[in-house]
Structure formats: structure tokens, C-alpha cells
Amino acid sequence: MDNRPTPGKITLNIILGLLIVAAFAISWRVTDVDFVKLAKNLPNGKDIILAFLTPDFFTHDKTTITIETPFPIPCGSAPEAEIPLSGPRLVPSIMCADPKVKFILEGFNMAPNSDVVVRWNMPDGRVLTAVQATTDAKGHFTSEVESRPIAAAVNGVAAKLAVETLTSIGNLKPSQAAHDVLAAMFVTFFMALLSTTFATIIAAPLSFLAASNVTKRGPVGTTIYYISRSVFNLLRSYDPLVMATIFGFWLSFGSFPGFLALTVVTIASLGKLFSEAVEGIDSGPLEALQATGANRFQVVVYGIIPQVVPNFISFIIYHWDINIRISTIIGFVGGGGIGYYLSQKINLLNYHQAGTAIWAIVIVVWAMDFLSSEVRKRLT
Amino acid sequence: MNKKHSPVLAGILSTFIPGLGQFYAGLRYRGVAVLLGMLFTSGIVAWYGKPIWYLAPVLIWLWNIWDAICAARQGRTFSVLLPILFGFVAMFGIGLAVVGVDFSKADINRAIAIMRPMFHPDFIQKRAESNQAWVEVMVPCLPGRSVSGINEENGKKVTITPTCADIGEALTITASGFWPNTDANLWWEDPSGSVKMIGPGEAAMLVAHTDGSGTLTASFKVPTTATIAVPDVTQSPPHRVYLEQTRLLGGFELSYVGGRVLQGALQTIGMALMATALAILLAIPVSFLAARNLMSGNPFTYAIYFIVRTLLNILRSIEPLIIAIVFVVIVGLGPFAGVLALAVHSVAALAKLYSEVIEGIDPGPIEAIRATGANWVQVVRYAVIPQIVPPFTAFTIYRWDINVRSATIIGFVGGGGIGFLLIELIRINNFRGVGALFITIAVIVMLLDYFSAKIRERLV
Amino acid sequence: MLKIENLTKVYPNGTVALKNVSFEVPDGEFLVVIGLSGSGKSTLLRCINRLIEPTEGKVYWDKTDITAASPTELLHIRQHIGMVFQQFNLVRRSSVMTNVLSGRLGYANPWLSLLNIWPEEEKRRAMQALERVGIPDKAYSRADTLSGGQQQRVGIARALMQEPKFILADEPVASLDPVLSHSILQYLEQLNKEGITVICSLHFLDLVHRYATRVVGLKDGLKVFEGTATEIDRAKFKEIYGEEAQEVRATTV
Known about the structure:
The complex is a heterotrimer of chains A (380), B (460) and C (253).
Chain A: H1 7-30, H2 35-41, H3 44-53, E1 58-70, E2 89-92, E3 102-108, E4 115-121, E5 127-134, E6 141-146, E7 160-174, H4 176-209, H5 212-215, H6 218-236, H7 240-251, H8 255-279, H9 284-291, H10 296-329, H11 338-347, H12 351-379
Antiparallel strand pairs in A: 1-7, 2-3, 3-6, 4-5, 4-7
Helix pairs in contact in A: 3-12, 4-8, 4-10, 4-11, 4-12, 6-8, 7-8, 8-10, 9-10, 10-12, 11-12
Chain B: H1 7-16, H2 20-24, H3 28-48, H4 55-74, H5 81-99, H6 108-118, E1 124-137, E2 150-153, E3 156-161, E4 170-176, E5 183-189, E6 195-197, E7 206-209, E8 216-221, E9 239-254, H7 256-289, H8 292-295, H9 299-317, H10 320-331, H11 335-359, H12 363-371, H13 376-410, H14 418-427, H15 431-459
Antiparallel strand pairs in B: 1-9, 2-3, 3-4, 4-8, 5-6, 5-7, 5-9
Helix pairs in contact in B: 1-4, 3-4, 3-5, 4-5, 6-15, 7-11, 7-13, 7-14, 7-15, 9-11, 10-11, 11-13, 12-13, 13-15, 14-15
Chain C: E1 2-10, E2 16-25, E3 30-34, H1 41-48, E4 56-61, E5 64-65, H2 71-78, E6 81-84, H3 96-101, H4 110-114, H5 120-132, H6 148-161, E7 166-169, H7 178-193, E8 197-201, H8 205-211, E9 214-219, E10 222-227, H9 234-241
Parallel strand pairs in C: 3-8, 3-9, 6-7, 7-8
Antiparallel strand pairs in C: 1-2, 1-4, 4-5, 9-10
Helix pairs in contact in C: 5-6, 6-7
């Protein structure tokens, strides 16, 4: 072949280059690309990404406890408190005081980011609010408290500084989000399983109609061949999510329309792959079977099916993998499953729970990807 | 089988731990597969909880014992078709219930009602021009609040009598200066902007015909559904009566929705193009870090290789649609968020493919070029680049193809493009627009499919 | 007795594969067809059982006009004509047993055969056929695990299952080495001696001399030679194969 540049080729290349440049220029404009904005707003994404990276998988049982610290007023009227060194606790800066003395009260290991009310629990059972405070992210607060005359010790029993807070008890256990994500993941799994199977059952026979070596004979056969091929190509061109919008509108939200949309697109996609597998078979055995006087069905069963089954299985597993992927997001357009859970949590700005769903998706997709490629390797 | 295995022992082993008997009989893979299959089926059945389906794991368990005995006795095994069948039946029973498959819900009439307008896509319309005017009228009559009942503009004059009326009362409208001998549509618009029909039964347009001098007169009643601004009737703004004439100019033009569809399509293709371009720029350097043959030299580079590979695998498992959520938060709604999401996913996908190409480089030509005394740059130019450019290009075009498909849906989470429009059209029940959009998607994807296949055929 | 009259085949793309070929094959003959690749040998054999539809001409088998047979009749005729192929044409992923049994499809119950269910009688016959070609131990192996020579034996066993009146062999040894060639052709010769007519296309002159009772030569679709094996000498061979052709000699056993 002559590869020397000729004036014609050079012009062609220049035109092609200009076209590509023009395509990029137009794309740049219509897609509002703005890297300055990206750089400037990047901090906006910190919270959501952090939340995604800290998914809500586990939780402790929570219970409300009351922490009490006896505080003798005046000093010596009652025994002083012994302050524990860890756990939720109230720590006054002095262990006792005369009336109307101001001191600093610190709380440790309370529920984080919450409002707490510190009270005086008096010996006679009456209650008086001492101070209100808000804890920080570590569950710590500091406030100034005054020793009130009314909270004086009675008969050697001191009034107690008391606060109520939530605390974790017991062992780590899966959170509500983990439960919900697992349940949604099962729906997703079954959506993929059912759609792949239904699609296989329908696509396997139909694919023979779109195989030129089987069908393309005579005017009727040729027409059927072209029609089935076009239908496969047309339906294949839609993303299952696009289909799901229509099915969702038709059947209202849920995993059923998601399943149907996936099935329709998978039929088209598998149908095309299957028909190509049928077209790729060795025609020798078919000829041999015809020569023995076998009828058409016998030729299909003895000649074609044994040759295409391994390819078919490989395609089915490949599609099962794809369908798992898609069914994780089909819920965004009303298809049910984990995608629906995820989109709800995103809309409610519950990013930790959304993170749980995302990690679950990553794990499942990854596992399926690995499994399917291993199985397909074995098959060939 | 040379070794003798005890069928009884195999049976007992499999009774307690499914698959152990097969394992003992020397069928390792089978044993592991039986155990995993058993665990999987029992797990699903236990999660679902309906007792009837426990039959499946029990049957598989029985089969497994029998299979272990057969395996130990003669080394020839039983068909696996049976347990697979049990497992599948249980999975499908549960699956159908969990997914809520219920074909009786599939209302065909509703499907037809949705599909019919899709077959009359709103893409092009007959070219036409219109001639519109309006006049204000008060409903109901209130002291101190009145309108002139006359509106004149651009040589058109519309008069209404009386200038105020209550619901159900008759009004007469006179208009002049319109196109002669042409039908005019008349409708009512209340202060909230909602349109009411004033034709027969308030179910059709009122149509009047102009005479030779462009004048028309029509009578109608104030529509019963005309909203009166409550609670304070006295503050109600005036209602309007519109007249509009339309005449064909011949030929066709792009309809409004059609124009938006094409715009969305352009945006979608543009998004895919930008995302692919960005992905190439990032994926090429990353792919060298993810190539085992380049990075396995020492523990440090191997660690980098391992980390990069893991990150790429995680990113690849996250659909662009989910990544787009993050970018919508960062840069706001619009196509740019979509571009970034597609780009991130594509970097992961392309870098993996590129690195596999680099790993698969044939060392022969490198050795040969080096033997000619070429320097490092020359070796890269003449031995490495010729090997990697065609597969890189093929993978990139393939990725672009995928990105166009993904870009059609990225709008569902606010990423711009044709998906954004699709959601909007469905929300306002404009299925003629949806039809136009579906045609556009099919044309784009099929054309792209065709050309990318052609180009890749040439490259490989 | 097989009678071929004025057989012509023109392919849709205009290639003329056979021009007016006529000859007769009396029962019990071992007829060898020789000619260059593309001279029409394969087309000729396939026109006999109408795997390829002839454009013109007739093929008579005894009194039956094969070329005029209806589709159902044709299936019936094919049941009695065994065929062996250059590329063996086995279903590579099926077992040897299934491949051999598939020769019996025309006789089998059409419904049961679709489920690959066969009567014991047929399985026994298939084993016998495999024993005749010397590979009964391979019955349950997958066909693609066998060597070329073994695969061709499976091909012959498949043809035997048909209880054929005659066998069409389309270059049965062209993909095999010389030693295997002889062993395969000896099986065919054996069958021929048992009364089955064999029509076989071959490439090598010494094989022709060794096995043929009669020879038909084709060149560019025309019959250029018909006679006994001894009548064909080197000069004739050159004439058929063209000047440049070299006679490749297969090792004699």
C-alpha cells in the first residue's frame, strides 16, 4: 500500500483535524465546562464525600442514662462526690462550694452535638434547672454554674447535679441502614436474576430468526431476518433506565417496572449476541446431518445447539453481570431496589446511609464482576 | 478412581457438611460448589422466611448425600441438573414475590394511551404564523373595579360587552383588524393563568370566522370553572379573553420540543466527547502506574501499583450516575456535573484497559530495536508506540460509544443532556415529545454503534 | 445403479462448477473422482444427494429420480446415502456416541430424538459401528478430543449407522497424513467389498491406483476422463491436473 502523503490526503487530514477541533469547541460550549468553578467549589463536596466514606453500617443500642454528681452546699455538709475517670461524667471545677459561688462544670462523653439540660436534683425530690448547654462533636461541654442556696444539703444529703444523655450500650450491631440496604439489595439481586432469565428464555428462540445462516432463505425468511434484526438493534439502543422511565410511568413505581425494562433491553441485547453466535457456527456438521436425512429440527438440535450452548452461557453470565450493575441504579427512575433506597437517602440528605448503599453496590458489583469473569474464563 | 473410598463415610460426611463427602471422594471442586450452592440457597430461603421454600435446600441436601455416596462408590457422579433445578425453582418463586411481578397490573389500555402519542412524535410541525389579541373582563361585577372592555394594538381592536359579568352570564366579543375569512380560536384565561374552554359544553374551543373585512363577533358565557380569587373577591384581578388566528405558511419547521430534543442530543454527545477527552488525559499516566510489568520492579512501586489498581476497581464499580450525585453537589445541576462524573468513571475503565495493553506488549520488537543501537526515546517511538496506539484508540472509541449511552441517562440526577429533558417531558405528560426523544436516541446510538464498529474493525 | 445425466451447476455468483457431466456408477463399484481443487468434485458429490441443488440435469438412483424428489422423499433418499467429509464435520462439542447416533436421525422417532433419547438397540448398533472402525473406547469422549484420523473414523461410523446403499466420500483423507489415509481408505474398501457402492474424490495418483475400480476426471467442471484405474497413467494425470502439478506420492503401506 502506498502511504506517501498526497495533496488530497493532506487536505483530508486537515479537514478531519478541523472537524475534530470544531467538535471539541462546540462540546466545550454546550456542556458549560468550567474548571475554575470546579476548583473553587471543590470544598462543597467535602461533606458528601466524607459522609460517603463513613457509611452507616453498625450501631450500638442507645439508651438514656442520668448522670448524677452529689455537690455539697456548703462544703462539709455532706460527703463529696467521687468522679469516675472515664465514661459519661460530670466534672465540677470544685468539689463543694458555699452558696452563691460560681464554678465551672464540664461534661464528658455525652451524646455528641446535642442540647443538654443540667439540673439540681434536690434531696426532697424537687428539681431546678442549673444550666443549658450544647455538646460538641466529642460530647463535651463546659458551662458556668452557680451554687444556689436553695440546693443546700439537708440532713447530710447533698443535692445532685444531674444530666440526661444518650449513650451506647451493648455490642456493635448492624444499623437500621444496613438492614434496609440488605433488603433492598435482595430485591436488586432478584430483579437482575429474573430479568436475565426471562430475557434468555425469550431471546434464545428469537435469536435464530435473526441469524442469517438459519433464517435468510427466500423472501419470507429474509424479511423475518431483517425485521428481527432491526427490532433488536432498536431496543438495544435504549439504556434500561430510559426504558424504565416509561415503564415506571405505565406501571407506577416499584421493582416490577424496573424488571420489565431490564428484561426488554436484555432480550434485544442477548438476542443480537445469540444470533451472532449462531451465525458463527461451523456449517460442516449441519451439512453432514442434512446428508443423513435429518429434518430441520433435528439439524437444529444435533448440529446447532451443541455448538452454540457454551457461547450462549458465556453471554448470559456476562449479561447477568451487567444487569446486576444496572439494577443497582434503575431505582433512580422508579425501578425499585437499592437504587430507590439510595435516591431517597440522597434526597433526604442522609449521606451516611447513602454511603452504606454505595459501598454495598461497590461490593456486590465487584464480586459479580470477579465471579462472572472467572466463570467465563473456565468456559472457554 | 484408583483409591477406594467408603460410600458410608462419604454419605455421613455429606450429611453433616454438604459437599464434604464429595471432597473426601476426591471431587474437590464439586464439594466446594455443593457447599457454596447449599449455603447460598439456604441463605436466600432463610432471609425470605416462608417455610414452603425450605423444601429446596432440604432436597438439595438429600441429593448431596446421595451424590456423595455415588461419588465414593464408583467415581461416577449423579447429574447436577436436579439440585440446580431445585435451587432455581426456589429462587424464582421467591424472586417473583420479591420483585412483585404481577402481569395483571400491566394495563394494556394505559400502555396504548402512552404509546400512541409516541408514534406521532413532536419533532416537526407545519410552518404557520399566528395573529393574537386579548381583552380584559371583570368577574364578578364589583363597584369601583372596572375595566375598559376595549383593547387596541397593532391595528387590531377587541371589544367586549358588558365589561363585567358573573359566572354563567353572557358576553359578546367583537374584534376587527384580523385576517379576513379565517377561523379564530377564542379561550378564557383566569388571573392564575389557567386556560378554560368557552366552546360548546366548555369542552371545546370556541371558533369564530372573520368576514371579508377581518371583523368577527362571538357570544359565549363566563365559564363555570373561571376561578374567582378568594378569599377577597374585591381584590380579584381581571380575567382575559384571547383570540388567535393561525394560518399555514406551507412547508415544515422544527417544533419547540423538537428543538429542545436536538439541543439535548447535542449536549449529550458533547458531554460524552468532553468526558472521554478528559478521561484520556488522566488515564494515560494512571495506566502506567497500573501496569504490572512496569511496576513490579521493587516493593515501593508494587505498592503503588496495588493501590492504584484497587482504587480503579472501586471507581469502576460505581456507576457514573452515582458519581454524578457528588458532582451535582459540587458544581451544581447541569451538563458539567455530568461531564465530570462520566470522566471519573471513564478514567477508571480506560486506565484498566490501557494498562492491560501495556502489560501485553510484545518484548520482541523492543529487543530488536534496542539491538540496532537505538536510544530510549527511539525504542519508545518505534517499538512501544506502534504496539499500543491502535488498541488504545480502539478502546477509547469504544468508551466514547459507552459514554454517549451513559450520557443519555446522567440527566436523571441533574447531569444535563437528553435525560434531563426526558424526565421533564414525562412529568408534564408530553409523550409526543418523548416519542421525538426516543427517535433521536435510537438514531444517535445506532449511528455511533455503526461507525465505532467500522473504525475499530480497521484498527484491530 | 446410479446414473448421472447432463448435470450442470451454475452458482448464483455466475461460477460454472459443473458442465454437462454424465456417467453411470454400477452397484458395487469404487468410483474415484479426481481433479484440481475447484474442478467441481465437491459440487458433483453434493449434487447427488442434493445438498446442492443442480441447475440442470438428472440424477437417477435405480428407477428413482433424485433430482425430482419432493422434500420428504429427499429426506428418505438421503437416509440411505452415507457421506464422509474432508473436515469430518463432527459436532465437536458433542460426544462421539451422539455424533454416531446422529447418522440414524432419519430413522429415529422425530420427537424422542429431539430429546437425545435413543432405544438401546440403536446404542448397541452405534457401539458395533465404533467397534468396526476400531475406537469403541472413545464412545463417551467429546469429539474434539480425538485426533484427525479418529474423527474421520467417527465420520465413517456415522455413515455406517445409515445402513447405506452407497457412500459419498468427499476427499475423506485430504486432511490426514499418508499412513492414516490408507487406514481410512481401507475401511471404505472393506465396506465396498461388502457390497456398498463408494463414490470418492481423491487427490493422490497412487491412492487412486490402489483403491479405485473406476475413475472419473474433472477439469473446470467438465468430465475429461472416464476409465479404469489402470488406464490412468502419469500423462493423463498431468493432463487433468495441469502441467505444473506434481504427483505427490503417498506412502504405500
